[in-house]
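=== RUN LOG ===
request id: a7f3
mode: sequence -> structure
chains: 1
length: 171
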Amino acid sequence: MHATHTARSNSGFTLVEVLVTLLVLSIGLLGIAKLLLVSSRANDSAYMRTQATALAYSILDSMRANRQTAVSGGYSASTATVTDPGVTCSTAASPCSNATIAQLDLWQWKNDLAKGLPAGTGSVTTANVTDPVTGGSDVTATVTVQWNDTVAQQAFGAAAGNVSITLETVL
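=== RESULT ===
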């Protein structure tokens, strides 16, 4: 009888193979972490843009509800602070004029901008324009909302600073 010995090769991993695998895995995990960071900032920026749009539509809705005052320019406001009219129009016993309602709407809107957006502010302008189809006169309202989006802009390589949206509609 003849005994044969077959050479058995090691079936495990070497230390070099394990280290290379860990290096490749760690580079992949760092890439995923950076992707999560960028997507988080992009999501935050998109959220602020959505909030700004919703706030711009809210003042437009208030203007449509008080159209007579809006058409006469009662809702025009610059980015400066609007003062609190100091009245409440919550009961039928103390009704407010349309101009007071406009001031309350603007004051509440400015407060919502300041609370909802970092360094949030806005302006409302109205202008008479000629309708190109009918030739009649229409009143156009332009709402601009600004906020500071520095964190997200720097993440994307853009210059830091304020971002704004502008909505325009015919009242």
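=== NOTES ===
Strands lie at 121-130, 137-148, 162-170.
Residues 15-170 form one domain.
=== END ===
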